[in-house]
Amino acid sequence: MQYPFTEEQLAIADLTKNFMEREVAPVATEIDARFDPKDCYPRELINKASKLGLRTIAIPEEYGGMGADLMTKTIALWTGGQVEIGTIKCLSQCWKATTAISRAGTKEQKDRWLKKFSEDDDAVCSLASTEPDHGTENRLHGGDPRLGMRSSAVKDGDYFVINGAKRYTSLMGESRLILFYARTDPDAPMSEGVTCFLLDGTEKGITYGRTHNKMGYRLYPNRESFYDNVRVHKNNVLGEVNGASAIRATVFRGSAELVACNTSLSRNLYRICHEHAKERIQGGKPIIEHLTIRHMLAEMIMNIEVAEQFMWRICWGVDNDASYNSRFTRSGKVFSDKVGLKSIELGLDILGGVGIMRESPSEKIVRDLLTFLHGDGTDSATLLEAANTLENPA
User: Fold this and answer.
1) Does residue 212 register a pLDDT over 80?
2) Range(s) for CATH 1.10.540.10 in the chain?
3) Picking from 89-93, 342-346, 374-378, which range would have the lowest pLDDT averaged per residue?
4) What class, spelled out in words, does domain 126-242 have in CATH?
5) Check: CATH 1.20.120.450 for 253-387?
């Protein structure tokens, strides 16, 4: 790591590493292997992480957190992901949602939601946007009001009445804080007609469906939810009515989360391959002494280190550069996905037969890397969003 990290950032990284190695590593394989995806959520681990302060690092100090900047959050996620990605991703989801409230919420909202969230060691967050029939379309609607999410919120006095359904929502059913997106102007495009609401998941009219049975990231579950005439007070509107696009920008424009996930997993796979290459004997010597293996290892770590340096550049730009272009965030996601895929290709070649065995530690990493190709949308959709910034930077 060549960036000039502060002592506080390095301390957070050490705290994260120690917790993940001590508490998560010994049990992660067993949790991941549970048949029912509902049983894979690491509730006890999140509670223990919270007592160390890791769940709330993005919350301002006056509400019980440490007000961590993007560099600090990213180094914690990147460090934890090298041990087990699902658990640390549950924590980083909390950082995203509470950052949005810290930046866009009213004082009353911060006093209520951040204080309550900070005091509950079991609280996690969800961002409810994707719907059964509307996913990529939510992002690439082209300004057409007929396209995109159909969940609606209709004004009724001091309340909004929400109806609709969401799918693939991370941590849904476990969350005590939900950033819920719904149309408040059906005649406007999504960029001008969607509002973000704050829910705690216990409101009358909310029911939960199946927990999706994913191949990877199983300790970071996703679930369906349904909304039948759910009444939400106007004080729970985050930001402006019809202004959800600004909230989404707050969450995603300045994020290095997906790059941190992919590079941490790729680095962990590289570590396994490097150790294997030193121990596996072929042709009378460890395979690391064969030039082909050394070449593949060198290519793996080259790709990973380049992606990591771009990740730290994203963090620095968000925190320090007013002209930062969100294309960097989107490019980082796509590039690190490609690094992950290349790491799988090279890594399984180096590992040989052992690499495809279920008992190999590489097996979970491969599933995790493949699963998060869909993190915050597919690469094709993300590149289209990046292309839209070429003439009009955002």
Assistant:
1) yes
2) 7-122
3) 374-378
4) mainly beta
5) no
Q: How far apart are CA 213 and CA 4, in angstroms?
A: 41
CATH number given to 7-122: 1.10.540.10
* Distant-in-sequence, close-in-space partners of 217: CB < 8 Å, separation ≥ 6: 85, 86, 89, 368, 371, 372
**In whole angstroms, what is the distance from residue 170 CA to residue 180 CA?**
12
The pTM (predicted TM-score) of the whole model is: 0.95
Could you report the per-residue pLDDT of 278-318, keeping only the tens digit for each?
Answer: 999 999 999 999 999 999 999 999 999 999 999 999 999 98
Question: CATH 1.20.140.10 region(s) of the chain?
Answer: 253-387
By C-alpha distance, which of 325, 322, 326, 335 is closest to 379?
Answer: 335
| 8 A C-beta contact, residue 356 and residue 21 | no
Residue pLDDT, tens place only, 155-190: 999 999 999 999 999 999 999 999 999 999 999 998
- Residue 390, pLDDT > 90, answer no
pLDDT computed for residue 1 by the predictor = 52
CB atoms within 10 A of CB 36: 8
Residue 231's beta-bridge partner residues? 161
- Residue 5's nearest CA partner among 335, 319, 325, 336 is 319
Residue 361: strand, helix, or coil: helix
The CA angle 204-207-211, to the nearest 5 degrees, is 150
Q: Is 165 helix (H, G, I), strand (E, B) or coil?
A: strand
Q: How far apart are CA 238 and CA 220, in angstroms?
A: 25
Nearest-5° angle of CA 47, CA 48, CA 53?
90
Pull the structure tokens for residue 382.
């993300």
pLDDT in tens, 225-244: 999 999 999 999 999 999 99
